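Hi C.,

You asked whether I'd gotten around to modeling the 350-residue construct. I have! Everything is below, sequence then structure, no commentary in between.
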Amino acid sequence: MKKSFLLFLVMAGLWSCQAKKPLKKNIQARSFDRSQRMDVLAFGSCNKHDKKQPLWKSIKAQQPDVWLWLGDIIYGDTENMRELQSYYSAQKNQEDYQDFLASGCDVIGVWDDHDYGVNDGGEEYPYRSESRDLLFEFLDVPENDPNRLHEGAYSSQTYGSGKEKTKVILLDARYFRDELKPNRSSKHRYKPNKTGDLLGDEQWAWLEKELAESDAAIHIIACGIQMIPSEHYFEKWSNFPAERERLFQLLGDDKTPGVILLSGDRHAGELSKMDVKGLEYPVYELTSSGLTHYWDFDEDKEPNKYRVGNRVGNYNYGLVKIDWSKSPLEADLQLRGLGDDLYWSQRVSF
């Protein structure tokens, strides 16, 4: 019995060491200087770590300064942190992704539900803190980074200087999110939570400060789930209508310049457009979702009264190309696919 117990302790110790083994970091070539202006940002979501990943060569050819992961980097859906870490490691060591990393663009990101650890999950997930640390480890967030000092995975980065400055704000719609109750309606999966939190008090205070103190010309605000669309069946900001209204009111009250919204989650790509009270320009939201898999079905099955152009049910990634030579500033919002496929491009100005 004593020998068996000793063997158990030894094996438990080995498991603990393996569970805390860091992900490889030598393949991350973070050479982009954040003091330089950002001309091209690429982003995507819904990426199964164990499936064929056909888009990395196409993304690399666009020579982005920044790559933004917008959730579902892996499909974990587990409370086993060792298992979750192994999925991140598999993605980090995927051959085409390694080649892309070697291009030297900056890599940032935030999670959605499947890399958070539970489908459609919120604050009830018991390993949210441990999961956050694994995400930051995968993204090579330095140990002394100020974004590690708070709970949750929200963060911001500023690129450029003077009049050529871009602030990228990543919102965490998981860590602090209140409960959503199932809805028997055929139109929506969940009942609207009219008084619940999506971001939580700490994150709201942080966001308000980030916007109030910013002198950036462009503000890219990104979240794993969609912010503008309000009609489809699945997860979205409008499941928390007061939170959605608060976000747009904040942008209007602050008269935030150069707002571009980015999102993922929907296994398809689309562009949404909305007028925001207080802003002199319309706000666009570019959704890109489908790095390894997608849903191809008629647009009327997922309505969006704010949609501009066609919904794309195919492999896709998003691009934001800023034209700093224009006054007022302009940007191309693009949705692209395999090879040199360009599904559409929307020119926006601020």
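If it helps when you're writing up: The domain at 32-349 is CATH 3.60.21.70 (Purple Acid Phosphatase; chain A, domain 2).

Thanks,
B.
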